[in-house]
From TrEMBL:
Domain DUF7164 stretches: 61-434
Keywords: Membrane, Transmembrane, Transmembrane helix
Tagged with keyword Transmembrane helix: yes
InterPro entries: DUF7164
Organism of this sequence: Didymodactylos carnosus
Protein name: DUF7164 domain-containing protein
Membrane-spanning segments: 9-26
Amino acid sequence: MWNRLRKSTYLLLSTVALSFIVLFVYEPFQLVHRFYKHKVNDLSLSRIVENAKPLKQSSETNVIIRAILIYYPHEQEQSYLPEVRWLSRSWLEMMLDEPKEWRTDLIIFTYQFSAAFKSLNCINEIRKDVNEPPRCRIMFYMPIASRNESVMKTVFDYQNNELKIPNIFDRNTFNNERSSSLYKNLKTYAYIDSINCLVEGYMAFKMYDYVLRADTDIFLTRNFSNYIPENSSILVGLGGYGTDYNRRKLRRIARDMNLMYKNMSGMGSTWLGPPYSAYLIANLTLDCMLYLAINEFSAPERDGKVGTILWPDWHFGVLLLYGQHLAINHLVIANNLKVIIANEMLDQSTTNNQSNDMKQNLRLVLHCWHTHLPFSKFEFKAGKYNHIDPRSLITETSAQSYAMRMSLESRIMSLDELGRQISNVKKIKQVNQQMTMVTHIIGDISS
C-alpha cells in the first residue's frame, strides 16, 4: 500500500513539474522551434581520436570565447545567403551543447549591412566583454576590387559604424603598397578578400581565444561545441590541390623567395586556432599570392579555359591554397608555429551517409565540395531537396543527414525566427534541459 502511495505521489509531482515547465517556461518561448521537440541522438564527445593527440576537450569551467570568421560577397547575395543561413542554423545547433561559460560569435566581413543581416539580429560591434552573449557581428570591409585610387584618397564612408576595414592609420594591419598591388594584380581573383580581411580585420577578432576561419558553405557539428586545440596549435583542414608536380614547383618557389620549407602539403582553407596564428598565416599568404600571380602565372595560365586544362598540376583558381602552402611551410620553421593537418576533423564531406561517422571520428566541420551527390549545395540551391521533410531526419546521425536537415530547416525558418533563436539560445538550452529532466523522472517512475 505504502509503495503504491509513494509511486502515486512521485507520479503526481512529476506531472505537476511537467505542467509548470510547459506553462511557465515552454509556452513563453515559442521560439523553441518545432524541430527541437525531438532531440537528435547525443553527439557529445567521448574520446580523442588517435591522429589528433595534440588536441583535447576543454574543461566546462573555463571561460572560452571563440569566433567563426567568414567573408561575405555582398554583391552575390543570391548565391551566398543560403549558405549563411545554414551556417547560422548549424551554429545554433552547436551552441545547444556548448558549455555554459563558452561564447561563440559569428563574425561576417562584408561591404554592406543588408536587410538580411538585420533580420538575423546581427550588430556592428566588436566584442568588449567575455560575458556578452553570442552574437552575429558585421564588420564593414572594403573589397579589393573597390579600391581604386580615388576611393583610397578619401575617408571611407560606412555610415555609423564602429570599425572600418581597412583602417588606413593602423600600420599593423594595413599596408598601402600591398593593398595597391592587390588591386592591380588580384582584384578579379574571387577569393582574395576572404584572406585579406583576416589581416586588415585582425583588430575585430584578436580578443578571442580561438577562431575558426572558414568558407560560408560549411556546417558546424555538435562535436564542435566543446572542442579546442591544445598547446596553441592551429588546425588546418583538407586541401585537394597537391600533386607531385606542384609540390616540387612550390618547393622551388620557396627557395626563390628565401622562404623555409617544412615539406607539409594538403592544407585546406579551414583553420581553427589562436587569432594571432591565423593572422600570421593570412599575412604571409597574401605576400606569397602576389609573388605567385606576378612571377609564376602567365596571362594564358590565368585565363579560365587554360586554367581548367592545367588542373590539377598548376591552377590559378587555387592560388590562395598555393600561397597558404608556402606561408605555412615557412612559419612552422621560422616562427615555430604549431600546425596540425586535421584532415579527419575539418573540411569533412557532406555526402557521408555512415550513421556513426561524425561521433566516432570527431568530425568538427562539414564542408560542401563540388558534387551533385546528396548533400550537394548546388542541388539544394536548385530546389531539388524541397520535397524532403526535415523532421524525417531528426534521428539520423550521418553527416549527409545532418547537412540536409540544417539546410532544409534554415530554408523553412524566417531570418527573424532564426535570429531570435540565436539570441535566446541560453533559454532554449534551459528548456531542453528541464524537459529532459522531467522525461527521465517519468521514465524512472514508470520502470
